Amino acid sequence: MVNKKMGVGTKGQVAIFFMVSIVIVAMILLSFLLLGETGVDRADNLDPRTIVRGCVSDLVKDSVDKMMRNGGEAVPSQAILYEGEEWNYLCYQADFYQGCYNIHPMLELRIESEIKEDISGGVESCFDRMRESFRDEGFDVEIGVMSFSVDLLPGYVKVDLSRQVDISGDMGTQSSKDFGIEVVSPIYDLVSVARDVVNSESQFCNFEYNGYMLLYPRYDIRRIDYSGSKIYRLIDRRSGDEFRFAVRSCAFAPGI
Predict the structure, then answer these.
(1) Strand partners, 42
(2) Helix (H, G, I), strand (E, B) or coil at 40
(3) How far apart are CA 75 and CA 234, in angstroms?
(4) Side-chain half-sphere CA neighbours of 228 within 13 A
């Protein structure tokens, strides 16, 4: 009988010890979580690169949409009005029966420049937003000089974005510099098709788009003849994105 009582007592002590251990471990874990929320390396929603990259990515997507809609420019510079919308000319000839002149022979470089100019102010605002997010949490933020570039590449738009950012708090200092991103887009490939269209229109006053689609079934090319001009829609079948522009080449004289 004595041995049984001692055994029960021992088991009770072990159970109590086990429960106390669980409570202690839980308190330690809770302390680490609470400290983590106030440290520099807290949740992703206060990671400087996550904030800036997400913001810049949205800017690039919006800007690329403009370029695709406006024939490679943020605002059409020379356009024809068709169905209430402006279609930017990439190749133009005012005289009749003559081939058009390629207005933007370096279209890819121009679009890169246009995107950079279009988003530059917004990129600065992205860093301002990030800085305020950290300052609201009690951190000190120092931001250096920014440099960035935009490159159109097959299948995506690459933004190289470099800026020294130092965030200081009770847990130390966190430094970041590379804020570059890549945004998936067919704009590079569609610009290559637009180049083929313009080269053919300027040389032959025509582009055989049906034959082109047989060779390159990825693209759906649509053309509408309107008021002495040609309205082109280059559609990427995979994504549904389209690059739009107009051409005025070898136009017929009125009444002929």
Answers:
(1) none
(2) coil
(3) 19
(4) 19
pLDDT confidence tier of residue 16, bands split at 50, 70 and 90: low
Token digits for 74?
């943020």
- The token pair that represents 98 in the structure block: 């003559």
Q: What are phi and psi of 3, to 5 degrees?
A: -65, -40
DSSP-derived secondary structure letter, 186: S
- Between CA 104 and CA 76 the distance in angstroms is 12
Average pLDDT over residues 72-94: 95
pTM, full prediction: 0.80
What are the beta bridge partners of residue 35? Answer: none
How far apart, in Å, do the first and last CA atoms of the chain sit?
A: 122
* 28 Cβ contact partners less than 8 Å away, ≥ 6 residues apart: none
Least confident of 12-16, 30-34, 121-125, 128-132: 30-34
- Residue of 172, 157, 148, 161 lying closest to 51 (CA atoms): 161
Cβ atoms of residues 156 and 184 within 8 Å: yes
DSSP letters along 77-123, please?
Answer: SSEEEETTEEEEEEEE-SSBTSPPEES-TTHHHHHHHHHHHHHHHHH
Q: What are the residue ranges spanned by the domains of the chain? A: 1-38, 44-248
C-alpha to C-alpha distances, 224 to 209, 221, 247, nearest whole angstrom:
12, 10, 10
Which two structure tokens, joined as six digits, stand for 242? 């389209």
